[in-house]
Write the structure tokens for this entry.
Amino acid sequence: MTIEDIDIQYFVTALKNSSGYDFSEYSEKSLKRRLAKVLMDNKMELNQLVTEIKKNVSFAEKVVKEITVNTTELFRDPFIWQMLRYKVLPTLQDNKIINIWHAGCSTGQEVYSMMILLNELGMLEKARIFGTDINSDVLDIARKGIYKYRFNIGYLDNFDKVIKENPYNYEKFNDIPYSKYFEIDKVKDFMRMHPFLTEKPTYKKHDLVRDENIFFNKFDIILCRNVIIYFNYNLQNRVFNLFSNSLYQGGFLLLGMHETILGPMSASFDKKENIYIKK
Amino acid sequence: MIGGSAGSFQVVASILGSLPKNYELPIFLCLHRLKHVRTGFVEVLSLKSAIPVIEPYDKEPIKPGRAYLAPANYHMYIELGNKFALSTEAPLNHSRPSIDLSFVTAAQVYRNKLVGIILSGANKDGAYGLKKVAEYGGTTIVQDPNTCEVRTMTEAALQMGNVNHIFSIDKIASFVANLKAI
Ligand SMILES: C[S@@+](CC[C@H](N)C(=O)[O-])C[C@H]1O[C@@H](n2cnc3c(N)ncnc32)[C@H](O)[C@@H]1O
């Protein structure tokens, strides 16, 4: 079955009734494409899948995990991290506490990127870091902080750009070894984040569709990158509203490179380059 | 919608360069880029193009008279309601953006109003998508393999069948320039 002829409605309704997860406001084309992939991977017809979802909640949970897209990178879009390093984080130097929420953090590379930056700026101690995702499996990987070296080798370039080079002053070069933050074993094909990083964040399962701010605090920075591209316009607006209510005034919202606030919620933020600032 | 890879940049530039300023249609470009030329692509194309060249944001409404370039490292889908949707799903056939995925989603939305064009390229991405364009009643064009820097992509598209025209670069450019909104 291909993405053209899938009956998405039938699937979405069954999933919602059996497990409570609501994908009705996800972007249709990409959801169809993922559903086609889930059917192929499970060697099932849509009818079979739906029957199984209806009688087995844990199967429904498994489908949710398979249908969401979990791709991520260390320091994805180095340019954004350079802005964070040189423009955003310095403005929080004098805060006693810095609260940071990674919404849709997947396997945690984004969280580790942030902690590495904070550490370079001497701000890690006072940061409180929260990572959430709808998929509890990716959160388990984030907690462990162990990744396949093979899959992440390309992203070490990103590390070099953000941590070693200074885009505002090419003569400054910090030769910071990877071993300051993670161990690399090429033979066994893994990289492992150091304990001072893995122990720091609080990870919690959280569904942006249904859940409010589950933490008892507001945030200085919220990162929600490459998550809302999977949501339709209405759901995006609701999520932006949640973020707006969860940020301190002057707090920062970072979206992905090609994500933007198009609707009414844009009035609640100022935009500087790629970063939204809560009014 | 135009798909291309190695050797397609000059072709795209000459197509965009020969458009009238008041062009009535949107043009979608799904081009594979080399890792190290991720930035600056839009700027260079803009210099040669008669209409604005844009890398769209997610859910950006599609407007006529613009050329939209699939952003590096994202798949670009066309949604109902005349909007883009982006995705970071893993590369398909080693490609992100995937020409197949862009073509299939555009075919479903625009059906017989879609013109699909495959240009020079070094892999087979786009062949399946072009076939879908034909199945939905759209017009399909393939650059003449003899005029391609790399012919793999056009040959794969031709093998899928259902191709309406095999055109030289100039022919493609004038065909696209003369298209009108219906
Ligand atoms: C493509 S990853 C982005 C990871 C990271 N933020 C980055 O930019 O590299 C998208 C993540 O969003 C999560 N996600 C999808 N729907 C969600 C929802 N309703 N609530 C919370 N997380 C969700 C997925 O499980 C996935 O891990």
